[in-house]
C-alpha cells in the first residue's frame, strides 16, 4: 500500500483503469525509470501529466571514493535544501544505502557534522524513498541492486517516525520496491517514547540499532546531550521490552574515539551493560570531523578483545569513504550554502 502523502500520486490515476497504477509502480520501482517518458506502456498524455505533476528526476551531485566502494550523493530538494545519501559497496556484493531522515538535526552530538548545522525540517516520505531510488538507478547501470537500507544518515529517524515508517512500507511493498523487511535498519540515539516503544508494536521485521558510543551516562551526556532525557538505563529497559515483544537482536553502535571512549576501563564497563542475550556491539572506527581523532587500530583491537573475552558478541565496521567525507553531514557542512 502507498503511504498517506502518496495519495496525491494515486489521485492522478483516478480516471484511469486500475492496471495503469500498477504499470506506473512497476516502471518506477522495478524498471527504475528516470523520467515518465520512459514508461512507454503508459499513454503519452498520462506520461506528460505525470511528468508535470509528479516529476521523478532527482537532482544530485555525486562523489566517489578512491577505492570506488563508497559513493556519496548530495541531493537537492524542492526547496533547495540539501541532504546526503551514501552507497557502500561491500566485497560480498551487498550494496547498502545510508539514508537521511531529516534535513539537519536538533540533537547536536559533539562528534557529528550534521548536529552542527541545526535542524531545518523533517523529510517527507517521498524524499526518503527518492534517496534509495537514486542509488537503485545508479546500481542498475552496472547490473547490481540495493540489498540493504540503513537509517544512519542525517537526522534522528525516530523524530520523524511516521515518515520513516511510511517510506519503509513503500520500499518493502511487494508492488513497490520489494526489499525484504529484514534488510532495513533504523539507527537511533535511543528515543524511547514514540521510537523504540512504537517500533516494538509494528509488525515489521526490521532491525533496530542504538547509537551508544559511551558506557556511562557522564561521558554519554557529554558526547550526546539527548542522553540527559534518555539515559542509558532508560534506553536499555526499552530495548529489553522490545526484545521481549519481537525476539529480534539489537545492535549497539560504539564509535571508538581516541582518548575519549577507548580505554580498557571503558571496555570493561561496556561489557557489564552488553552481556545480555540478543545484544551485540558494532565497533565503528571514527571518521574525524574536527575536534576528535580516530583511535589507532591496536587500541581498537584491544577494546574488541576485552568485549569478546567476556562473552559479548562484537562485529566491526571498517571506515568507508574517508576521502569523500562520508560521515553524515560532512558534505553538506562543507558545501556551506545550506
Ligand atoms: S549523530 Fe545523528 S542524532 Fe546525533 S547530531 Fe548527528 S545526525 Fe543528529
Describe what this molecule looks like in 3D.
Helix content is about 35%, strand content about 20%. The chain has 12 helices and 12 strands. It has helices at about 5-10, 20-30, 45-55, 115, 125-140, 160-170, 190-200, 215-225, 230-245, 265-275, 295-310, 330-335, and strands at about 60-65, 70-75, 80-90, 95-100, 100-105, 120, 150, 185-190, 205-210, 250-255, 280-285, 315. A hairpin with a 5-residue loop joins β3 and β4 (about 95-100). The protein is α/β, with parallel strands linked by helices and about 350 residues long. The chain has a 10-stranded mixed sheet, covered by helices on one side. Strands 5-6 form a two-stranded antiparallel ribbon.
Give the arrangement of secondary structure elements.
Elements: H1 7-11, H2 18-30, H3 44-53, E1 60-64, E2 70-76, E3 82-89, E4 95-98, E5 102-104, H4 113-117, E6 119-122, H5 125-140, E7 148-151, H6 161-172, E8 184-188, H7 192-201, E9 207-211, H8 217-223, H9 232-246, E10 250-256, H10 264-274, E11 279-285, H11 297-309, E12 314-317, H12 330-335
Parallel strand pairs: 4-7, 7-8, 8-9, 9-10, 10-11, 11-12
Antiparallel strand pairs: 1-2, 2-3, 3-4, 5-6
The structure holds iron/sulfur cluster (SF4).
How would you describe this structure in keywords?
338 residues, alpha/beta, two-stranded antiparallel sheet, 36% helix, 19% strand, binds iron/sulfur cluster
Average pLDDT works out at 91
Taking the alpha carbons of the first and last residues, their distance comes to: 34 Å
Reported for the largest beta sheet, the result is: 10 strands, mixed
Helix content class? 25-40%
Unreliable residue stretches? none
Compounds present? iron/sulfur cluster
What topology, given as strand order, has the largest sheet?
1-2-3-4-7-8-9-10-11-12
> Would you list the SSEs in sequence order as H and E?
HHHEEEEEHEHEHEHEHHEHEHEH
Instruction: Report the oligomer.
Output: single chain
* Count of beta strands: 12
